[in-house]
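Database export, one record per block. Field names are fixed; values are copied verbatim from the stored entry.
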Amino acid sequence: MKQKGIDMVNGSLWDKILMFALPLAATGILQQLFNAADVAVVGNFTGEKGAACMAAVGANTPIIGFVVNSVVGISLGTNVVIANAVGMNNKDTLSKAVHSSVLFAVLAGIIIGIFGEIFAPQILQSQNVPMDVLPLAEKYLRIYIMGLPVILLYNFEAAIYRGVGDTRTPLIVLTVSGFINVILNLLFVLGFKWNVDGVATATVISNAVSSIVLFLLLLRSKREIRLIPSKIRINEKVLLRILRIGVPSAMQSMAFSFANIIIQSSINSLGTVIMAASSAAFNIEVIAYCVLNSFSQACTTFVGQNFGAGKVDRCRKVLKLCLIEDAFFSLASIGLMLLTGRALLSLFNQDPQVIESGYSRLMIIFTAYIFSMIYENMAGYLRGFGISITPALLTIIGICGVRLAWIFLVFANHHDFKTIMFAYPLSFIVTDIMIATAIIILKPSRRNMHCQDANGNNK
């Protein structure tokens, strides 16, 4: 496989941002389509247990998001450190970041997996999961947690490739492993008559395939990101730099996911049909989010490399272009999802109540995505400069704080599905205002004129 990067510090930007973001969006969409296949298979091929199986997978979505995103958030640190090192042509730091990240991902997966297996029942019981869904949800969660080492390894490997401007290699690898996931879904559920354990096992196996393939490609790479087994160790200085950027992002993801767990708990209190509808809608709406978020990640990486190269004027231009291009592609994807929304929901479950409740969620969430697009790109811009604590704190206050307040103050008095959903647009509007204010006050391109190397020293 020919591995190519993008020259982010020279030449035009608008086309290169597209070359980076669109494969990244495709990667996220494919990943979500394969995840959606889990829900569709159990919803259509497990007989009368279909709605309960869908609800079980849906009940686990925010929990898994909390566990995985808390660590994957740290991979943003890997992305930024590698991007800065590329901009400064610091091959030594780049190599140390690659080897430290790979080992960190595996160790984190093992440690979190052990705790997850121990506390899985208590976690689900705290989420108001109905008794008819609880055994299925626990079965799914336990199997998924067993695969955390390979799941986290793939995400950190993908971050390494993104740092050097290569989003195509993870896309190709994910495509192959995703089709393996779909085939195994059908084999385990239709052939072996499993239910949620079948789709969970298929997910773990396909993630193992993708992480192993990327690992082998890194071993054989002829570029600066080549992985050398004898060098796989933690470099304390480089890991500290990664954590300095990544931990605030991880804390943000944890708080974000915690708020979503509270929201999911409120959704669970409305019954199995609403749980199934929310699960189906989530698997559709997140496709548009993949498009939206890909430009945010492009913003972080492009700003990171240009900041490392001392080209701060290009950093400001990156933010403007990412906002414009993101608006175009996000609105196009949202329009397509709304036009085909009911038909797509029927692929998961043909119950009219599930379809209508799911579509009402889509309408509200897609309104929120307009504001989410602005927030994501501005936060990505700050992270590219290595400013990670500020967007993390503002996100915790603006998104998590608003959503929790809405659930405990408003939903408590208006106990219906639409009331829960309105927490999303409101929280994004508040966070947009705070992040924009932070950029105006911090002026990152002026305050950081003296570039730092990946160890945090002034260049």
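Remark 1: The chain has one domain: 14-447.
Remark 2: The CA atoms of residues 273 and 353 lie 7 Å apart.
End of record.
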